[in-house]
Amino acid sequence: MAEDLGYDGVEIMVTHRAETQLASVINECSWRFGLPVLAIHAPTLLLTQQVWGSASDKLWKSADLAKQVGCDVVVAHPPFRWQGNYAERFPSLVEEIEEHTGVAIAVENMYPWRAGGREAAMYLPHWNPVPYGYRHVTWDFSHAATAEDDSYENVAALGSRLRHVHLTDGWSNGFKDDHLVPGHGNQRVAETLQLISQPEFGEGGFQGGVAVEVSTRSKRKVGQREQMLGESLAFAREYLGQV
After folding, report:
1. Per-residue confidence band for 3, with pLDDT thresholds at 50, 70 and 90
2. Residues near 118 by beta carbon (within 8 Å), at least 6 away in sequence
3. pLDDT digits (tens, 9 = 90+) for 202-229
4. What DSSP element (H or E) covers 20?
5. By C-alpha distance, which of 188, 182, 148 is closest to 166?
6. pLDDT score of 102 more than 90
7. Which of 56, 64, 124, 181 is a good FRET partner for 101, with 20 to 30 A between their CA atoms?
8. pTM
9. What is the DSSP annotation of 160-204?
10. Of residues 40, 170, 27, 25, the one with CA closest to residue 103
11. In what order do the strands lie in the sheet with 37-41?
């Protein structure tokens, strides 16, 4: 589908499925469809805690997979607060892996968990990596909406530390992670893409990738998923100045 719609490449999410973990399979698909792998998403989600052993092993193995498939970016969520020693060591571990492998570990912005009018701090040191010293960051617009945060301001503050973007959208409802088609929520997505497309952004312009990450699970009719992904690609090309 990505090839048919005209995408430039793909991001691979490592899950329980064996084909997402094997460089040989990924490289075969990449060659067959002519789509390079632009990023590996480490299995740091709540639902992938059983993939690839310990939390630190997940990052090391993701970096190794990235090198095997020819990309230099790994997307990683910040640690959960219950991950103890790993959470404490996370910033230094990220630096160690980057220096040892040459792969950028781009820490993704998340959001606080809310229920019953209460807010729980589930990530350490925080759900927003921007104020911290990570050299590389992934920015997700839907997560920003859930956090009731401003993507434009955060991306502007990141500058050259912005390494990867998850292109999507959402409504600032404080709870649901929507992952809408860009332009269908209330984040300043278009303005933010225009910002990073400027040659003076950061130090010499944005050097990373933009990956569409929209939820199509509820779409069952023929052509619905293609329409959403095609619209998202057109949005990206327009506001990144590629048309």
Report:
1. confident
2. none
3. 888 999 999 999 887 776 777 888 988 9
4. none
5. 182
6. yes
7. 124
8. 0.94
9. GGEEEEEE-B----SS----BPTTSSSS-HHHHHHHHTSTTSTTT
10. 40
11. 10-13, 37-41, 73-76, 104-108, 137-140, 162-167, 209-212
The answer to whether 75 and 42 are in contact (CB under 8 A) is yes
d(CA 145, CA 128): 12
Partners of 20 in the beta sheet?
A: none
**Structure tokens of 24?**
């040989």
* Segments making up each domain of the chain, as ranges: 1-108, 110-243
Inter-residue contact 63 to 39 (CB < 8 Å): no
Which tens digit of pLDDT belongs to each residue from 12-61? 999 999 999 999 999 999 999 999 999 999 999 888 888 999 999 999 99
Task: Look up the CATH number of domain 1-108.
Answer: 3.20.20.150
Residue 87: C-alpha distances to residues 33, 51, 83, 147, 219 (Å): 38, 18, 6, 21, 37
Tokens at 207, concatenated: 């050097």
**CB of 9 closer than 8 Å to CB of 35:** yes
Q: Which residue carries 């490289």 as its tokens?
A: 27
